[in-house]
Amino acid sequence: MNSYLDKFNDAIQNTVFHKLSQNEQAFIKEKSIQYKFTFSEIKQIIDITRDLEMWNEGRIEDIFPKHPQKRVVFTTLKKIYEELKIKPNSYEHFELKNDPQEQKFYFKTEPKEGLGLGLCPVASEKTRCCNLLTLDAVESCGFDCSYCSIQSFYNQNTITFDSSFAQKLKNLNLDKNKTYHIGTGQSSDSLLWGNREHTLHLVAKHAHYNPKRRTSNGFFG
Question: Which residues, 6 or more positions from 193, have their beta carbon under 8 angstroms from its beta carbon?
Fold first, then answer.
């Protein structure tokens, strides 16, 4: 039992599990233990539960199949979910659940390991790419968008600035004969915090002294 609980706890990391109600969390945990769902299956069930809530389509308990075989349960659950996805939208009984609330943020500045300069995540040999490079200047975002991957990797209430960002920009070793397209918003909304910690000033200064190394500070990953 303990071994599977460890696997379950690992599976819910970097998911929206903590955003679900206590009853939904308990239900998913109970059924996961009962059927020994895999890492991937648990993540999918969590996403289904969150979508049901966002779509105002009831609770996961309402559509969860009753069957002794795990394969039948999961396949049936996915089928019900897919049918809901393609069903025509109706907002007749829709209720606003996420009333805007004041968010409190905690800011910290600390040195980050590595430069954080790399290719856009969707870049590959099979895509028509604009050759965007991403330079992470800030970690975490002030928005709480349910669809965004940023909230899965960072604490939404803690915004981290790289104290060594200025030196890293100065040490960028780029070919002077090439034109670069560099975005700074892969791990956050790069314009949200303005010039806090001189981030915008540093990027603008870098672009000024390196006119062929264009920056796209408004890029939001």
Answer: 138, 142, 159, 199
